[in-house]
Amino acid sequence: MREKVTRLFVAAAIAEACSWLALLVGMAVKYGPPDNELGVQIFGPIHGGLFVAYGLLVLAVARLRRWSLPATVVALASAVPPFATLIFERWARRRGMLGVEREAVREPAPVG
User: Fold this and answer.
1) Using alpha carbons only, how large is the chain's radius of gyration in Å?
2) Cα separation of 98 and 110, whole Å?
3) 12: helix, strand or coil
4) What gap in Å lies between CA 64 and CA 92, rounded to an integer?
5) What's the angle, vertex CA 80, arms to CA 25 and CA 45, rounded to 5?
6) Rounded-to-integer distance, Cα 65 and Cα 77, Å
7) Which residues contact 84 (CB under 8 A, 6 or more apart)?
8) Phi-psi category of 35—alpha, beta or left, where left has phi over 0 and alpha has psi -120 to 50?
9) Cα torsion for 75, 77, 12, 3, to the nearest 10°?
10) H helices present in 1-112, as ranges
């Protein structure tokens, strides 16, 4: 269960960052020379849904993995600036907060 929720958290962090990119492109098109609101109309609700999903998954993973309150607050706040969810996810992974063990670096096997 913990691993599944953690994998969903990682997927939500990546998807939320991608939806930020799509929304920013949609906003550029809306307020730029093409003057077309279609991108914002499509990607706005998608980003909003992923934003909420990420927030709920942060709370679930924080409880399951016993994150500290400051780490949980930073994880939630990282949903606001564009692409910060990716930065937080990598930071948390490096510190072992996601329960993902680092693979041991193997020496290359001799050939021949």
Assistant:
1) 18
2) 34
3) helix
4) 14
5) 55
6) 18
7) 17, 77, 78
8) left
9) 20
10) 2-31, 38-64, 69-77, 84-94
From the CB of residue 12, how many other CB atoms can be counted at a distance below 10 Å? Answer: 23
Tell me, rounded to whole angstroms, the distance of Cα 84 from its chain centroid. 8
Q: Which of 101, 15, 5 is nearest to 52 (CA)?
A: 15
Tokens describing residue 102? 């680092």
Do 47 and 16 meet the contact criterion of CB atoms below 8 Å apart?
A: yes
The reported pTM is 0.82
Q: What is the mean pLDDT of each run of 10 residues along the chain (112 residues)?
A: 91 95 90 82 93 96 95 96 94 89 62 74
